[in-house]
Amino acid sequence: MKIKISSLGCRLNQSEIESISTTLQDMGHEIVQGNYADIYIINSCCVTARSERKTRQLIYQSLTRIDDPNKARVIVTGCAADLIEDDPRIIYLSNDHKYMIPHIIDHGIPDRSEMSPARFKYDVPLKCSTNRVNLKIQDGCNHLCSYCRIPLTRGKSVSKSFNSVIDEFKMLLGNDFKEIILTGVNIGDYNDRGYGLADLVGEILKLRGEFRLHLTSLDPNSTSERLLDLFKEDKMVKHLHLSLQSGSDKILKRMNRPYNCKDYVSVVEHLKSIDSDFNFTTDIIVGFPGETDNEFNETLSMIKDVGFSHVHTFRFSPRPGTKAARMDGIVPEIAKTERSREIIKIYNEQKVDYYRKFSERHGIFLSEKSHRGVTTGFNEHYIPVEINEKLPKNHFFKMEFVYNENKSVLNGNLLY
Q1: What is the per-residue DSSP string for 104-165?
Q2: Handedness of CA 373, 377, 379, 382 (dihedral sign)
Q3: What is the model's pLDDT at position 70?
Q4: What is the average pLDDT value for the chain, to the nearest integer?
Q5: pLDDT of residue 72
């Protein structure tokens, strides 16, 4: 069958659906990129009201494209599945049962007794659509931030076994993946029989082969000096999506975030002592209930002090079942929009300044895609690079970089 997959949200969602895609292809199904298919799979997200609306739009579009709307040819899974379960023509699956999608497509919906919940029952995503692949090592969260539904949709923190992660990592290396991204809801909480994330990363870095290890997202409270020191290793991507949400300690406390601004700056300073050009990106929520102009200005100051190359800016939207949805002090939408624009303006300026630092420097480029004589990918600091030359996909190349002001990317010249 021809199957269309649409996936929203985080790298964890992407990792799971890439695993499912691998299984479906191994079963003989075809994953299509066009609009028309026999079956539509929608991997949803509920982090914001906007992502939930996007899920509903995808459902509507899918239902209008199937030949017989009375037949269930749409499967909705992911974190928003329980919020939008209202159409009998659709199969809804929670995250705990997402792994059953291939079985359901080939054999139908099993009895409830056969639908046991599982969070790591996925094939290794060997048929990932890019050569930068997400490897799931953890799921769930114990932190109960006041604005977040993830603990309600993914449950408490659980970790994949240490040996399983190492074995799956080796499988990915054996299939020639060059950049492997460890992912989960909160990988800093990784713990298998006393082995934490630093133990896991340290063991991975001992593996032979030409590869990069990318951690992407961490909370500052879940880092240790030992883990941070591992970023000295050449195989580590010098980038971290270090979650902030607010630069005001008062707002962080209302959010029930498990760190303060001093903790955050300490992690930044440690990593900049390892590499002064370390690449930081983050998330910011603007217009959290009760956020004053002064508290927002504290966030702006933090953004300027850290020097993020990118900020994912979210305007606060109340999520069902969270404490923040019941908080007083609603910030007007117009104020949220203005604050969001101000952040975007600042980080766009910072991105230019950061990228310019790499002009006339040498670095390592990982080729990812080639189209019309242009090859794209990333360097070791997770900065986008374009080469005006057709290069083989999935190879490392030594380059001299020049900042391209028009496209806001680095251009590269091969060093032989």
Answers
A1: HHHH-PPPGGG----SS-----TT-SSSEEEEE-EE--S---TT--HHHHH-S-EE--HHHH
A2: positive
A3: 60
A4: 94
A5: 62
